[in-house]
Every structure is written in C-alpha cells, then in structure tokens.
Write a structure and sequence with these properties.
Order of helices and strands: HHHHHHH
Largest sheet: none
Number of helices: 7
Helix content: over 70%
Shape: globular
Number of strands: 0
Distance between the termini: 11 Å
Length: 200
C-alpha cells in the first residue's frame, strides 16, 4: 500500500496544485488566474502570503520528494536514478520557493533578497523537471512513454515562450505559466501512472 501511494504521488501532486491554487485564489480578492503568476498568491504582503505556501508549496514539496524517492528506490538505470534525484530537487526547490516569497510587484526593477532566492528556486523547479523529462525520452521505457514525454516537452517549451512574450507585454502571463507547468505535471503524472501500473 505504501509503495502504491508513493508510485501515485506524482499524480496526486498534479491534482493537489490545481485544487490548492484554486482555493488560495478564491481567498485573494481580485486575483486573476489569467494575468497573475501562481507565486503572487504567496507574494510578500498578499492576502494569502502565509496561507498559499501552507496548502501549496509545502505539501507539494513532500509529494514531489516522495515520488522522487520512489523512483530512486525502484531505479535500475543511471537515467532513472538521475530522474529521481531531479524530482527530489524539484520538491526541495518547491519548499524554498514557498518559504521565500516573491515581491508583490513581479515587474520590480530592484527585487528583494527573498525574491531573488524565490526566483532561483523557480529556476531549479523549471529545469529539474525539464531535464528529467528529456532523460526519460532516452531511457529504456516503452515507446508510448517516450512519445508522451516528447509531446509534453514540446508543450512546455512552447508555453514557456508564450509566457515570456506575455510577461514582456504584461498580458496573460498567468495563463501560459499554468499551461507550461501543467504540461510538466502532466508528464510527471504519466510517469507516475506507469510506475503504479508496474506494481499491479
């Protein structure tokens, strides 16, 4: 039972963040899921500064670390060992991003030290799953999982480009952030289901 939970923790993380962001957003008057970043829910001075990390970053960090640890436990190759380590790194960076809030204004020219740490943690979050995705494409897995991983990777990159453009134009940056990270979590959920099926 414990192994099955660990194998499915990647799927649970994907569902958790959808619910967590929706709940936190409902407690933030005037918050726009289209125009605002997820991190703005926990930004310094926001109505949900303390609440958002409690229901998002910290439990999600645990779920990511549990799944990464499971991948390490069942790994039989260097690629999957590295993948497990990267998922754990993603989980730890999720903790850090929650503990150190971003500034209230995402366009500030002089970010605080806490915001700089938050941004660095966000970079680790992005690239840890991005690299893990690439590794699985070249791992000894089914052709279906490789194709699925490649499609998710393309979606992540496309939405990241659109997100960067929206940020510059001060447009719907929140929408493209959610789509990009959603594609990463969809990939993680797919890998999670594959591991769970292997236990059945």
């Amino acid at each position: 039972m414990l192994l099955q939970f660990a194998a499915l923790s990647g799927v649970l993380a994907a569902f958790w963040i959808v619910m967590g962001v929706a709940i936190a957003g409902a407690r933030y008057p005037g918050y726009s899921h289209l125009r605002q970043l997820c991190s703005e829910l926990g930004a310094a001075g926001s109505p949900t500064e303390k609440f958002s990390p409690l229901i998002n970053n910290y439990p999600l960090g645990i779920l990511f670390c549990v799944f990464g640890g499971y991948v390490l436990y069942v790994s039989s190759s260097l690629l999957f060992t590295t993948t497990g380590g990267l998922v754990i790194a993603h989980g730890m960076a999720t903790f850090v991003a929650g503990y150190f809030p971003m500034d209230a204004d995402p366009y500030t020219q002089t970010p605080s030290k806490k915001c700089e740490v938050h941004t660095l943690a966000g970079v680790v979050m992005l690239f840890s799953l991005l690299i893990a995705n690439i590794l699985v494409i070249f791992a000894s897995v089914s052709s279906g999982l490789r194709v699925f991983s490649a499609v998710c990777l393309v979606l992540v990159v496309v939405f990241l480009i659109l997100m960067a453009q929206a940020y510059k134009q001060r447009g719907n940056v929140g929408l493209y952030q959610r789509l990009s990270y959603g594609a990463q979590l969809l990939w993680l959920a797919g890998v999670s289901v594959t591991h769970w099926q292997a236990l059945s």
